[in-house]
Amino acid sequence: MANRLSRATSPYLLQHAENPVDWHEWGDEALALAAERDVPVLLSVGYAACHWCHVMAHESFEDEATADYVNAHFVPVKVDREERPDVDAVYMRATTAMTGQGGWPMTVMLTPGGDPFFAGTYFPPEPRHGMPAFRQVLEAVVDVWENRRSDVDRISAEVVSHLGALEAGDGPALDAEALDQAVRGLAAQYDAVRGGFGGAPKFPPSMCLEFLLRAAARTGSGDALAMVEHTCEAMARGGMYDQLGGGFARYSVDADWVVPHFEKMLYDNALLLRVYVHLWRQTGSELALRVVRETADFLVTDLATPEGGFASALDADTDGAEGTYYVWTPQQLVDALGDDDGAWAAGTLSVTESGTFEHGASTLQLREDADDPARWASVRERLATARRAERTAPARDEKVVAAWNALAVTALAEAGVLLDEPEYTDAAVVAATLLATVHTDADGRLLRTSRDGVASTNAGVLEDYGCVAEAYVAVLGVTGDAVWLERATTLLDAVLEHFAVGVDSAVGAETGAGGFYDTADDAQRLVVRPRDLSDNATPSGTSSVATALLAAAAVTGEDRFRTAAEDAVRSASALATGAPRFAGWTLSVAEAMLAGPLEIAVVGDGEDAAALHRAALGLASPGAVVVAAPVGTPLPLFAYKDLVDGRAAAYVCRGFACERPVTDPTALTG
């Protein structure tokens, strides 16, 4: 049997390389083979840090009898959802349409043309809790395929027709009234007791929190700010936050933020780092500042790759069980710290004899600041050292994803300046350079993933272009090097040419419709061209590109970028007003549009310029674009701007109309 996955760049695919299942990667070759054999495609989608993906792999894909049946009756295809979000998006939408729910592992049966006719998620090896066994599912699919092909054709045609219906259209601009209504909509779903939105499981609502911070800055709303403060404190003090090593887990399985799903994702931590930076900027919260430092340290220490990027995730499982790296019993605390400090740590960190997790173990919570900060610092360091020395660390997904790295670049660049921590800014610049080299092909187009400094052939999708272009503008802001603007606008030009709705560069077709598809017009064709406007775990492609377009317009003054950003936001306005929980980033960029955004040029160098730069980034004005550079930097934003009486100066502009320059940082903050 050919081991087709052994050359993959995806750690998830490599995890399955030795399975007895004869896996193929997604592509025309696998579909053609299914047509030649006249068998369906078994599509299995997951990712490296997915707990239940590992479970199903062990139970079914490593089982020889199951593998023999799959190989005889299907062409099995394995997809890493993080490498191929386009494939994942299309078939996840099919899965939720057919079953009412989705998740990973995702299991979809396709015709050789790629049309889905059956879908589900995890299936156990034996019938369990109302779920059929995986073998039963396989046999039922084979029976339908061989004996009722007309049912397959009918179902697949209905599903594809449903998927082809676009969920978007040009809507009204998101004005102040619409944004205020979105705040009220979020408040109606807010958990006033525990923080966050809705019930269990609770995911970190990072993009909604960013929107609420911006809304509070615009309106002075104490209610909007209170939702952010309460939620951020609840997340940071609960078990979802790693009290010893910094960084957040994927989500809380309960409504009280006590027990997490333990995988730690790059995108969550990048987005939350930005939220906590902005919360500290707006309120001066010492808790937020601590979380910023610890989370930034986690990114640059635990997720940094040798090539200068950031790995995708840390696994949830260690030694075959979830969470064992992170949970403690009272006795384990005593063993690591001694009787007195162990007992004190148990009280401080809510570690009980009965436990809050499994087998009498507890997650670590810091519900209140320690009564002895010096003692806590010592205990934290000793526990972290013991954890590293005595426990098996979670596996790391070494894959570098363009969009997620870009989110980290933007957050670290800003945090580095505001906290005067050059280590963070330097890490941002190095990672951005990796994106500009390894992740950029000879035509200036993005490649989504790399591993060990080698890029895959997976084309970048819209979120990659949007997040990376925004990151380049952020690096421009902290370095003053105009090459980053050139790189950003090159990507955005590609977006306007290849991703715009109603534009097909191959035939020059235009319909005048606004917004963007998630894949380029020259990308590999799927059964439908995906276009998901919702902000979920990460910003949608549309909202991330709108953010980057608006930032580029602020630096260049080019109306085409501003107009495209406005069109993108209008394309998602119905979702934003009807379901604001799933449009946090769209609402955030709409707040920036309403604010201008401010364009701030800090002219000069040395400590005076650095102080002005920190003060400018300290402004809470939504989406403000701040660039610090020496006199004479060839940027449109810096045209006709000079030192003032030989001193560094900050020019605060809106629509390229500027106030009088200031040389005193307090004039920016006061």
What does this structure look like?
The chain is α+β, with helices and mostly antiparallel strands. The longest helix is centred in the middle third of the chain and has 18 residues, at 266-283. Strand 16 and strand 17 form a beta hairpin. The strands form seven sheets. Strands 1-3-2-4-5 form a five-stranded mixed sheet, with helices on both faces. It has a four-stranded mixed sheet with strand order 19-18-20-21, sandwiched between helices. The chain is globular, with a radius of gyration of 25 Å. Helix content is 48%, strand content 10%. The chain contains 25 helices and 21 strands. Helix 16 (402-418) packs antiparallel against helix 17 (422-437), helix 18 (462-479) runs parallel beside helix 20 and helix 20 (541-556) packs antiparallel against helix 21.
What order do the helices and strands come in, and which of them pair?
Layout: H1 11-15, E1 24-25, H2 28-37, E2 41-46, H3 51-61, H4 64-73, E3 75-80, H5 85-99, E4 106-110, E5 116-120, H6 134-147, H7 149-163, H8 176-188, H9 206-219, H10 222-237, E6 251-252, E7 260-261, E8 264-265, H11 266-283, H12 286-302, E9 313-314, E10 317-318, E11 321-322, H13 330-337, H14 339-348, H15 373-390, E12 396-397, E13 400-401, H16 402-418, H17 422-437, E14 449-451, E15 454-455, H18 462-479, H19 483-498, E16 503-504, E17 509-510, H20 541-556, H21 559-571, H22 573-578, H23 584-595, E18 598-603, H24 606-617, E19 625-629, E20 649-654, E21 657-658, H25 666-669
Parallel strand pairs: 1-3, 2-3, 18-19
Antiparallel strand pairs: 2-4, 4-5, 6-7, 8-9, 9-12, 10-11, 13-14, 14-15, 16-17, 18-20, 20-21
Helix pairs in contact: 5-7, 9-10, 9-11, 9-23, 11-12, 11-16, 13-14, 16-17, 16-18, 17-18, 18-19, 18-20, 19-20, 20-21, 20-23
